[in-house]
Amino acid sequence: MDELVKKLAGLGLPGILFVIATATSGGNVAAVVALLSSLGGPLGLLGGLGLLGLVGILAEYITGFGTENVLKLVYTERSKTESVRFLLKEINELPITDELKAKLQQHLNSVVVTDTPEGDTPKTIEIVEEEVTT
After folding, report:
1. How far, in Å, CA of 17 to CA of 34, rounded?
2. What are 49-86's pLDDT values in tens digits?
3. How many whole angstroms separate alpha carbon 73 and alpha carbon 114?
4. What are the transmembrane regions (predicted)?
5. DSSP assignment string, 33-83
6. What is the mean pLDDT of residues 87-96?
7. By Cβ atoms counted within 10 A, which residue in 40, 90, 114, 121 is the most buried?
8. Which residue in 20, 21, 51 sits closest to 34, CA to CA?
């Protein structure tokens, strides 16, 4: 059993997902294959296995970069198109630690949008009074 755990730990998140899929199917190989095939969409079983690999790569990348940094980048990008008040409320409702919530809220409050689309620069208008000649 220890050897199995070591090998699954080497697989990371995809290994855990595979164990969950196997456990929920009662160990039935056909059910596991069907699950992987449905995950793979039009690519079938190979697509499902590829998806597990992709999930592993993404999980490793996010872990290496840091969950906090990923969340900050996501909320910074969303603040360009969504209300900051709405995003702050959403952060408050996330199932994360209070410390991380405070960091995200502070980061979102400090984000200043400096990009202005072209053409939105103020125009100078000069008003000239003409003398009426009679």
Report:
1. 14
2. 888 778 777 777 777 778 788 888 888 888 888 888 89
3. 16
4. 12-37, 43-62
5. HHHHHHHHGGGHHHHHHHHHHHHHHHHHHHHHH-HHHHHHHHHHHHTTTS-
6. 89
7. 40
8. 21
